[in-house]
C-alpha cells in the first residue's frame, strides 16, 4: 500500500510541476492544485498509513492513527482552496485587463512590437 | 515612571501641532512649547536626585525573549544631554515660530520636531541598548523628514537623502556592534555593560564590536570621512540646522562615545583610531570652513570641526580629557546654536547669507550683531568667553599626548586647527557685521522681533557667564556629567580663567595671532586652496550611489526576465539538486516498518489517479477535460483519506473538491477554454524531465518516510482530547482547542483572501476590464440557461443540505465533521442556487451579507478566545459541559463549539463571497434575454379554482 501512495504522490508532483512550467494561467493553476494534492497527501503520510484506526476516541477502538498530521492537512486543504480561488481570480482579472492569459511579462522585444488588439475576445469557441 | 513620561511626552505631543494647524501658528507653537516644557520640568524635577548621586531607573519588559525592554535610566550624562535637548528645543520652537514663512506648513514642522525630540531624549535616557538603537534609527528618520521639510527644493531632498543614507547606514553598523557588545557583556542593559568594561576589553570580539560601533558614531557625528553629509543637510530650515546639526543630533555620536566610554575607552585600539579620526576631522573641516561664503556652510564645517575636537578628546581616553570633552559639548551647544540662529536672522532680514554680499550690519541690526559677535568670539576661543576655557583644557590635554612616539604631533595639529578656527570665526564675524555699511543688500536689514533674538540672547548669556565664572555656573554640571562618563573618580581639576603660563596658553596665543594673520592673507590662502586638489564629496557620493543603482539594475535585468516558467524552473531545479546532494551524502538503509498489503480496490483507485493525472499532463490544452480529470484525482485522494483512517479529511477533501470545481467552471466561463499548444517539443521534454525528477524525488522521500517508524507528540492529544477538550474527535479538538490559535490565524487568512478576491473583481466592473467583459460573446450557449430540473433539484435540496450542514457541525466535536466541513457543505448548497438560478435571482434572496459573515465569524472566534481571559486563563482555553437534546442525543457543549461556529461562518462567507463574485462578473458577459429573469414558478389561481403554473418568461414576453 505504501508503494501506491508514494508513487501517486510522485506522479501528482510531477504533473503539478509540469503544468506549472506551462505558459498560460489555467494550466498553471491546475498545476498548483496538483501540487496541493501532493503536499497534502505527503503531509498526511508523515503520520504513516493505518487502516480502521480513526482518531475518534471510543472504548472499542483497537488503536488510533496520528491525529496531528490530519489536523494540519485539514486546514491546508481549506487554505489551498482559498489560494486557488485567489490565484484564479488574479488570472481572471489579468485576462480581463489585458486580454492575454499568458503568465509571463512581455519580454523587451514584445513590448516594443505593436500589440495585437485583443478586443473583442471570443470566448468559449470550440477548439 | 517619570523617566518613561519624559521620553514619551514628545511622541504623544507630536499629535498636537498637526491637529492645531488650523488654529493658527501661535496655537501650534504654544502647544509644541508646552509639550517640551512639560518634559523639561519633569526632567528637572529629577535633577536634585541625580545631583545627590543617585541613578534613577525604570523598566518595562517589551520582548524579554531577546533581551529587549523599555528601560530608561537617568544619571549625570543622561540628564545633561536631555536638558540640552529639551532646553535648546524650547528656544528653537519659539524661534521657528517667527522664522518660518506664512506658506510653510507649521504644524508638520512642529510635529517632526517633537518626534525628533522624543527620539533624541530616548537615546540619551535608554538603559537597554536595543531600545537605544530603535531611538537612534528614529532620529535618522525624523532628521530626514526635517532636512527635506522644504520638499519643493531639490537641494533639500538631495541633502535629506544623503543624510539618511549615511546616518542610517551607520545605524546598521551600530546595530551589529551593539549586538556584539551585548553578546560579550552578556546583557543588553547599559548599566550592566558599563560595569563590565574589563571583561569587554579582554574579549576577542572587542575590536570588531568597537569598529562597528564607531561606524555608527562617526557617521552620526559627521567624522571624517563621513563628514560631507552635514554641510548638505544645511538645506534644512535654519531652526533645524541650529537644533539638529549643531546642538543635538550630531552630538548623538559623541554622546555614544561618552556613554560607552567606561566599556570601550582606554585601550590602545581606541586611542589609535578615535583620537586621530577626531583630529583629522577637526583640521580638515576647519580648513574648509575658512573658504565657505555661505554663513550656514561656514557654521556647518565649523560644527564638523568642533565635533572632531570632542571625538578626539574622548579618544585620548584619559578621565581629564573626558572632562574637557563634556565641558566643550556644553559650551559648543550654547555658542553654535546661537550663531546658527543669528545666521538665520541675517538671512531673514538682509535677504542673503552670502558673506560676500554682507558687511556693516552692526549699525543696522545692533542687537543681532552684538550677540553674534560674542558667540563668534567664543567660537574663536577668545578669553573671558566659554569657548576659550574648553579650548584651553583641550590644548592642555593634547600637549601631554604623544602619538606614535611623536610628542609634538598632536599639539601641533591641534594648534593649527585652533588657528584655523580663529580665522574662520574672524571672517564670519568681521565680514558680516563690521566694515562699512553697503547699499546693495537684497532686503532692508533691521533687527528682528524679540521672538527671534531672545532665544539667541538666552544662549549668549551662558557664553558670558561660564566664560567669566566657570566654576560657579558650570562646575557642578561638568563634574556630575564627567563622573557619569568616566564611571569612576575624577582627577583633581578646577575650572578657572587663569591657570598661569602653561603650554596650552602659549599655543592659544600663537593660534590667536596666526588666525588674525590668516584673516589678512585670506586671498593668498584662497589662491593656494584653488591649486590644491578639492574633491567634491557630493559628486563622489552621487557617482557611488549611481554606480550601485546601475549594478542593481543590471542584476535585476539579468535575473528577473519576467518569465514565470524560468523562475519556477530555477526554483524546482535548485530544490531537486539540494535534495539529491542531501540524499547521496548519507547512507540509507531499507525501511523496517511493516507495510500494509495491497488490495484490489486500492489498486483500481491508484490506476484511476495515475491515469487521470497523466491525461491531464498530456491534454492540458483542453481545459474542460482537465477540469473533469482533476476532479477524478480529487475523488481518489478523498477515497484515500477514507481508507487510511482520516474521515474528517475525506469529508473536507470531497467538499473542497466540489467548491473548487465550481470555481474553475465559473472562471472558465470567462477565460478561453483552450490553452495554446506548446510549440517547442524540446521545451516540453525538458520540462517533463524536470518534473519527473521532482516527482521521483518526492515519491522516494514519501516511501522512505512511510517505511520507517517514528515518535509522535500526538499521544498527548489522544490522551487529553476527552478529559481536557471535551470531545472525542481528536482532529477537531486539535483544530479548535489544542491548536486553536493556528486555526484562528487560518480563518483570518481565508477572510483576507476572500476580501482580496472581492476587491480584485469589484474593480473589474470599471475600465478596460469592464469593456472587455461587455464585449464577451457567448458563442456556445445552452438553449436553456436555467434548466428546470436543476433549478427544482437545487431548491429542494437546499433545506436538506442546510440540515446536514447543521448536523455535521453539531457532531463535529465528537464525530467526523466540524466547522470547516459544515461550512463547505452549506456554502455548496447556497452556491448551487447561483449556478442553477443565476446571480441576480440568488443575490436578491440571499438574507445575509458575505462580508458580515466573514467579519462576524472571525469576531466570534476571537471573542471566544478572549472570553477565557475573563477566567484568567490563556487565550482560547476551552471549557465544556454536556447537553442532552431530544432526538439528536447527547452533545458535549464546549466553549470550543463557539469557536467552531466562528470557523463555520467564516468558511461560508469566504466561499460564497469568492464564488458569487465570479458569478456576478460573469453576469456582465451574459447577453441572452432570459438570464436576467431567472425562472421562477408562479402559482396562479384560475377563475375556476384550479391552480396553474405560469411561466414567467413567457408572461413577460
User: Largest chain-chain contact?
Assistant: A-B, 99 and 132 residues
State the separation between the terminal residues of chain A, measured CA to CA.
40 Å
Low-confidence stretches of chain B: 928-933, 952-957
Biggest pleated sheet of chain A:
none
**Average pLDDT of chain A:** 82
CATH topology of chain A: Helix Hairpins
Strand content of chain A: under 5%
Helix content estimate of chain A: 55-70%
CATH architecture of chain A: Orthogonal Bundle
| β-sheet strand percentage of chain B | under 5%
Find the structural class of chain B using helix and strand composition.
Answer: mainly alpha
- The N- and C-terminal alpha carbons of chain B lie at a distance of 80 Å
Structural class of chain A: mainly alpha
**Order of neighbouring strands in the sheet with most strands of chain B:** 1-2
Query: Compute the gyration radius of chain A: what is it?
Result: 21 Å
Rg of chain B: 39 Å
Number of domains of chain A: 1
Coarse morphology of chain B? elongated
> What is the quaternary state of this protein?
heterodimer
The stretches of 5 or more residues of chain A where confidence is low (pLDDT under 50) are: 107-127
Report on this structure.
- Chain A has four helices and one strand; from the N terminus they run ααααβ.
- In chain A, helix 1 runs antiparallel to helix 2 and helix 2 (25-46) runs antiparallel to helix 3.
- Chain A starts with a helix and ends with a strand.
- The longest helix of chain A is centred in the middle third of the chain and has 32 residues, at 67-98.
- With 127 residues, chain A is an all-alpha fold.
- Chain A has a single domain (2-52, 65-104), classed as Helix Hairpins.
- Chain A is elongated.
- Chain A is 61% helix and 2% strand.
- With 957 residues, chain B is mainly alpha-helical.
- Among the domains of chain B are: 265-540, no CATH class; 728-956, no CATH class.
- In chain B, 72% of the residues lie in helices and 4% in strands.
- Chain B contains 41 helices and seven strands.
- Chain B has a two-stranded antiparallel sheet. In chain B, strands 4-5 form a two-stranded antiparallel sheet.
- In chain B, helix 17 (319-350) packs across helix 23 and helix 20 packs across helix 22 (450-468).
- The longest helix of chain B is centred in the N-terminal third of the chain and has 32 residues, at 154-185.
- The interface between A and B is large, with 99 and 132 residues.
Amino acid at each position: 500500500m505504501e508503494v501506491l501512495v508514494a508513487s501517486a504522490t510522485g506522479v501528482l508532483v510531477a504533473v503539478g510541476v509540469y503544468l506549472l512550467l506551462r505558459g498560460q494561467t489555467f494550466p498553471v493553476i491546475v498545476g498548483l492544485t496538483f501540487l496541493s494534492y501532493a503536499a497534502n497527501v505527503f503531509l498526511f503520510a508523515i503520520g504513516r498509513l493505518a487502516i480502521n484506526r480513526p482518531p475518534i476516541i471510543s472504548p472499542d477502538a483497537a488503536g488510533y492513527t496520528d491525529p496531528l498530521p490530519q489536523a494540519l492537512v485539514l486546514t491546508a486543504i481549506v487554505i489551498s482552496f482559498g489560494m486557488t480561488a485567489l490565484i484564479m481570480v488574479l488570472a481572471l482579472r489579468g485576462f480581463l485587463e489585458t486580454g492575454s492569459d499568458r503568465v509571463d511579462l512581455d519580454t523587451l522585444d514584445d513590448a516594443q512590437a505593436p500589440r495585437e488588439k485583443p478586443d473583442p475576445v471570443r470566448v468559449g469557441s470550440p477548439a | 515612571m517619570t523617566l518613561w513620561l519624559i521620553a514619551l511626552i514628545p511622541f504623544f505631543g507630536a499629535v498636537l501641532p498637526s491637529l492645531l494647524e488650523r488654529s493658527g501658528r501661535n496655537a501650534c507653537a504654544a502647544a509644541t512649547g508646552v509639550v517640551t516644557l512639560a518634559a523639561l520640568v519633569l526632567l528637572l524635577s529629577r535633577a536634585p536626585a541625580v545631583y545627590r548621586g543617585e541613578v534613577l531607573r525604570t523598566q518595562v519588559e517589551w520582548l524579554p525573549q531577546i533581551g529587549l525592554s523599555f528601560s530608561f535610566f537617568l544619571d549625570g550624562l543622561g540628564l545633561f544631554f536631555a536638558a540640552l535637548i529639551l532646553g535648546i528645543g524650547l528656544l528653537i520652537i519659539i524661534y521657528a515660530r517667527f522664522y518660518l514663512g506664512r506658506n510653510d506648513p507649521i504644524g508638520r514642522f512642529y510635529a517632526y520636531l517633537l518626534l525628533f525630540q522624543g527620539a533624541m531624549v530616548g537615546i540619551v535616557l535608554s538603559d537597554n541598548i536595543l531600545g537605544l538603537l530603535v531611538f537612534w534609527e528614529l532620529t535618522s528618520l525624523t532628521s530626514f523628514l526635517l532636512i527635506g521639510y522644504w520638499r519643493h527644493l531639490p537641494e533639500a531632498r538631495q541633502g535629506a537623502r544623503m543624510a539618511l543614507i549615511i546616518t542610517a547606514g551607520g545605524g546598521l553598523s551600530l546595530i551589529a556592534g551593539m549586538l556584539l557588545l551585548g553578546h560579550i557583556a552578556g546583557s543588553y542593559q547599559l548599566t550592566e555593560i558599563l560595569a563590565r568594561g574589563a571583561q569587554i576589553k579582554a574579549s576577542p570580539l572587542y575590536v570588531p564590536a568597537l569598529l562597528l560601533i564607531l561606524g555608527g558614531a562617526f557617521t552620526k557625528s559627521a567624522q571624517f570621512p563621513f563628514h560631507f553629509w552635514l554641510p548638505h543637510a544645511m538645506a534644512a530650515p535654519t531652526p533645524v540646522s541650529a537644533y539638529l546639526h549643531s546642538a543635538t543630533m550630531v552630538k548623538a555620536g559623541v554622546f555614544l562615545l561618552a556613554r560607552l566610554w567606561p566599556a570601550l575607552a582606554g585601550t590602545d585600539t581606541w586611542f589609535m583610531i578615535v583620537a586621530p579620526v577626531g583630529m583629522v576631522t577637526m583640521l580638515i573641516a576647519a580648513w574648509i570652513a575658512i573658504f565657505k561664503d555661505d554663513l550656514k556652510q561656514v557654521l556647518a564645517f565649523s560644527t564638523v570641526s568642533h565635533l572632531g575636537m570632542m571625538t578626539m578628546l574622548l579618544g585620548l581616553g584619559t578621565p581629564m580629557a573626558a572632562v574637557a570633552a563634556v565641558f566643550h559639548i556644553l559650551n559648543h551647544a550654547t555658542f553654535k546654536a546661537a550663531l546658527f540662529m543669528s545666521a538665520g536672522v541675517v538671512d531673514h532680514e538682509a535677504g542673503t547669507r552670502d558673506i560676500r554680499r554682507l558687511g556693516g550690519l552692526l549699525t543696522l541690526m545692533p542687537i543681532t550683531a552684538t550677540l553674534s559677535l560674542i558667540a563668534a568670539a567664543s567660537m574663536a576661543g577668545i578669553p573671558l568667553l566659554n569657548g576659550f576655557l574648553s579650548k584651553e583644557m583641550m590644548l592642555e590635554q593634547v600637549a601631554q599626548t604623544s602619538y606614535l612616539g611623536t610628542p609634538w604631533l598632536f599639539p601641533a595639529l591641534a594648534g593649527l586647527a585652533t588657528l584655523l578656527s580663529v580665522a574662520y570665526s574672524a571672517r564670519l564675524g568681521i565680514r558680516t557685521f563690521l566694515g562699512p555699511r553697503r547699499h546693495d543688500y537684497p532686503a532692508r536689514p533691521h533687527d528682528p522681533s524679540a521672538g527671534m533674538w531672545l532665544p539667541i540672547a538666552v544662549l549668549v548669556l551662558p557664553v558670558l557667564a561660564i566664560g567669566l565664572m566657570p566654576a560657579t555656573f558650570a562646575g557642578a554640571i561638568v563634574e556630575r556629567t564627567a563622573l557619569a562618563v568616566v564611571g569612576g573618580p575624577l582627577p583633581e581639576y578646577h575650572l578657572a580663567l587663569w591657570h598661569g603660563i602653561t603650554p596650552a596658553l602659549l599655543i592659544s596665543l600663537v593660534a590667536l595671532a596666526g588666525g588674525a594673520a590668516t584673516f589678512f592673507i585670506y586671498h593668498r590662502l584662497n589662491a593656494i586652496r584653488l591649486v590644491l586638489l578639492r574633491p567634491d564629496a557630493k559628486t563622489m557620493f552621487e557617482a557611488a550611489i549611481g554606480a550601485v543603482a546601475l549594478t542593481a539594475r543590471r542584476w535585476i535585468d539579468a535575473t528577473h526576465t519576467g518569465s514565470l516558467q524560468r523562475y519556477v524552473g530555477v526554483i524546482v531545479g535548485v530544490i531537486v539538486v539540494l535534495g539529491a546532494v542531501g540524499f547521496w551524502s548519507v547512507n540509507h538503509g531499507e525501511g523496517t516498518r511493516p507495510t500494509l498489503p495491497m488490495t484490489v480496490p486500492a489498486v483500481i483507485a491508484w490506476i484511476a489517479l495515475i491515469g487521470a493525472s497523466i491525461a491531464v499532463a498530456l491534454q492540458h490544452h483542453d481545459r474542460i477535460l482537465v477540469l473533469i480529470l482533476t476532479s477524478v484525482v480529487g475523488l481518489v485522494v478523498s477515497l484515500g483519506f477514507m481508507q487510511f483512517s482520516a474521515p474528517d479529511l475525506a469529508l473536507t477533501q470531497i467538499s473542497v473538491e466540489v467548491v473548487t470545481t465550481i470555481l474553475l467552471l465559473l472562471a472558465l466561463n470567462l477565460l478561453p477554454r483552450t490553452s495554446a499548444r506548446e510549440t517547442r517539443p524540446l521545451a516540453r521534454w525538458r520540462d517533463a524531465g524536470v518534473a519527473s525528477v521532482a516527482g521521483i524525488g518526492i515519491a522516494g522521500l514519501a516511501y522512505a518516510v512511510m517505511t520507517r517508524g517514528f515518535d509522535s507528540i500526538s499521544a498527548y492529544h489522544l490522551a487529553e482530547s476527552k478529559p481536557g477538550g471535551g470531545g472525542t474527535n481528536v482532529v477537531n479538538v486539535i483544530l479548535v482547542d489544542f491548536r486553536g490559535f493556528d486555526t484562528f490565524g487560518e480563518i483570518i487568512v481565508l477572510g483576507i483572501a476572500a476580501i482580496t478576491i472581492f476587491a480584485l473583481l469589484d474593480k473589474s466592473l470599471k475600465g478596460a476590464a469592464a469593456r472587455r467583459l461587455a464585449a464577451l460573446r457567448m458563442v456556445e450557449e445552452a438553449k436553456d440557461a436555467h434548466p428546470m430540473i436543476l433549478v427544482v433539484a437545487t431548491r429542494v435540496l437546499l433545506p436538506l443540505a442546510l440540515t446536514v450542514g447543521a448536523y455535521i457541525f453539531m457532531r463535529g466535536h465528537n464525530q467526523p465533521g466540524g466547522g470547516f466541513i459544515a461550512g463547505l457543505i452549506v456554502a455548496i448548497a447556497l452556491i448551487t442556487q447561483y449556478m442553477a438560478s443565476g446571480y441576480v435571482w440568488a443575490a436578491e434572496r440571499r438574507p445575509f451579507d458575505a462580508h458580515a459573515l466573514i467579519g462576524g465569524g472571525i469576531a466570534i472566534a476571537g471573542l471566544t478566545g478572549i472570553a477565557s481571559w475573563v477566567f484568567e486563563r490563556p487565550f482560547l482555553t476551552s471549557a465544556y459541559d454536556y447537553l442532552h437534546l431530544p432526538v439528536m442525543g447527547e452533545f458535549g457543549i464546549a466553549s470550543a463549539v463557539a469557536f467552531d461556529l466562528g470557523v463555520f461562518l467564516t468558511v461560508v462567507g469566504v466561499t460564497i463571497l469568492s464564488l458569487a463574485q465570479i458569478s456576478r462578473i460573469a453576469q456582465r458577459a451574459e447577453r441572452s434575454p432570459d438570464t436576467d429573469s431567472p425562472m421562477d414558478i408562479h402559482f396562479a389561481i384560475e377563475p375556476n379554482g384550479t391552480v396553474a403554473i405560469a411561466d414567467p418568461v413567457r408572461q413577460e414576453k
